[in-house]
Amino acid sequence: MHLHSNKAIAIILVALLIFDHGFLYANAGFNYKDALTKSLMFLEAQRSGKLPKNNRISWRGDSALDDGQIGHVDLVGGYYDAGDNVKYGLPMAFTITTLAWAALHFSKELKSTGEWQNILSAIRWGTDYFLKCSIRKNQLYVQVGDPVADHQCWIRPENMKTPRTLYKISKSMPGTEIAAETAAAMAASAMVFRTIDHPYSRRLLNKAKLLFDFAKNYKGTYDGECPFYCSFSGYNDELLWAASWLYIATRRVAYKKFISYEAMSSSVAEFSWDLKFSGAQVLLSNTNLTAQGGLLEFKSQADNFVCQILPDTPYRTIRITPGGMVHLRNGANTQYVTGTAFLFIIYGDILSKSHQTVTCGHQQIKPARLVQFAKQQMDYLLGNNPKGRSYMVGFGKDSPTQAHHRGASVPVLADGTDVNCGMSFVRWCNKDVPNVHQLTGAIVGGPDADDDFEDKRTSSSYTEPCTYINSLAVGPLARLAVLGSS
Fold first, then answer.
1. Which structural domain range is residue 318 located in?
2. Which one is catalytic: 327, 404, 405, 437?
3. Cβ-count burial of 388 within 10 angstroms (0-12 exposed, 13-18 middle, 19+ buried)?
4. Would residue 362 show up in a list of annotated catalytic residues for this protein?
């Protein structure tokens, strides 16, 4: 899975100045290793459950230790997705799948930067939780916490009193997207742990197989996470994504047949918790597999993903801000920035190893161009942008101080403190002051289509961080940290 040529890629990155489609980009000289370390620290700040002794986030404590009790099941653990205190299954599973892919593809970089154990811990914090959620066959707990009640109370998870309602999918109430994404997370993670903890790896892979069968045999969209996480793209992308990871993990003919003859695929210009076609296409681009009996070639569709994003191709459909940032939509837009960087580097590595290029009509794009564009996107987030500011908390110049995040903005309170939810927003959310705790490493939602940014806690589309923004940043930052030191 570790496919790249550092020598070829480094040639394009060592240049001091790069003139790209009207934008002048200087070698920003960022400390990518520090950004990588902090990006993983943010994921630790999002942990739910009983924290380990080596917890690095001093202002975080144990939380939600009774999760699952009302259903007579242990659902302690997992991650809070963003600035609230709900555990949503779909984005959490995507976070773990992409962390596992980063661990597989960028293993050398993560080891050389000293972050290997931290990414393993981050992945296992999720997979341990998913094992609890999937304890019964054809049933999966997909959410903990009443989202409406939760969003009416601005309180740190250690002191929350809002209902920890349980939500699950089953044969009679299917949720193909979440079951398939969780299967993908378990299959990818099984590969990570295969040589580290083989019995654990087998448990994950066996669970992945069962979850995929559940997703495939009982099809239906689960709307329980709506309006917070609505699956607008449907479930065909998750089925292809899960089958792809299971095929890579097992090489079983059954998954190959599903990919080739049953799976649907489509050319898209997005990679996110809701839409994974491009991720699966990149993953499968060097397997010689095709979809729908040979009609759809994954290499061609992966090329189309690149062609729709790069500003110097005739097929570009994605907006690039005046300052050079990929912009799909307001509200956690930085997930598309880190997602683009993540896939571009991995695909560039695959193409370099197989001596191929991206085809955009009559135009041929060399792999190094993909890596250079990925670097530009990450540099934008770290401070090489029109505002000259960082969008990662605690990193670089003028970084965000008001991340839209309950735990960071509410002071540590004594156990049992009774908080008035109605007054909680007045006391802690709506005040125009820096958070009392630094949410180190969090990449916030970021600027709008005109490169404008408002560092206010109440402007959630600008300042709310999400686990999947950071999980997608880990791989690119690891690569840049190594290239920057070479």
1. 33-484
2. 404
3. exposed
4. no
